[in-house]
UniProtKB/TrEMBL annotation:
InterPro entries: Cyt_c-like_dom (IPR009056), Cyt_c-like_dom_sf (IPR036909), Cytochrome_c_Oxidase_Subunit (IPR050597)
Alphabetical UniProt keywords: Electron transport, Heme, Iron, Metal-binding, Transport
UniProt cross-references to Gene3D superfamilies, sorted A to Z: Cytochrome c-like domain
PANTHER family: CBB3-TYPE CYTOCHROME C OXIDASE SUBUNIT FIXP, CYTOCHROME C4
Name of the protein in its database record: Cytochrome c
Domain of life: Bacteria
Domain Cytochrome c residue range list: 27-105
Keyword Transcription part of the UniProt annotation: no
Entry keyword annotation includes Lyase: no
GO function terms (MF aspect): electron transfer activity; heme binding; metal ion binding
Pfam families found in the cross-reference section: Cytochrom_C
Length: 112
């Protein structure tokens, strides 16, 4: 391939990559939203805790959330409810549900 042809193709390849990345992200979010229904009673579909002993998940880093779920699943972190719930999650489920909760935007108001 000639050099100038190659140079002209680069932006198109980048654009196609972005479109696919966008679609993958949307698919992940959709799957994540569906998965999050099984978390909603305690963590809310919006990621805001609905029970006193469950933490907010909204807006946390995806890596952090995934590490916690993996730790529950492996038994490294233990909790009567979360250990059972995490045991039923596949790697894809964890990727999807953490994509959902980490994508939620949170606004904070610091006390004056
Ligand atoms: C029956 C209530 C309940 C349900 C349902 C539930 N959780 Fe939890 N979750 C908890 C509680 C309680 C904790 C706090 C555990 C602890 O104290 O160590 C927790 C902790 C977590 C944490 C660790 C957060 C942190 O900052 O340490 C993550 C991540 C999490 N849950 C994700 C999920 C996901 C994803 C689902 C659904 C697939 C889910 N949970 C379903 C009750 C629940």
């Amino acid at each position: 391939m000639r050099r100038d042809t190659r140079r002209r193709l680069v932006p198109w390849i980048a654009l196609i990559g972005l479109v696919f990345a966008g679609e993958a992200r949307a698919a992940d979010l959709e799957a994540g939203r569906a998965k999050a229904k099984m978390c909603a009673a305690c963590h809310g579909l919006d990621g805001l805790s609905k029970v006193a002993d469950a933490p907010n998940l909204a807006g946390n880093g995806q890596l952090y959330l995934a590490r916690q779920l993996e730790a529950f699943r492996s038994g490294e972190r233990k909790h009567p409810q979360m250990t059972v719930i995490a045991a039923g999650l596949s790697d894809d489920d964890i990727a999807a549900v953490t994509a959902w909760y980490s994508a939620i935007k949170v606004k904070v108001q610091v006390p004056q």
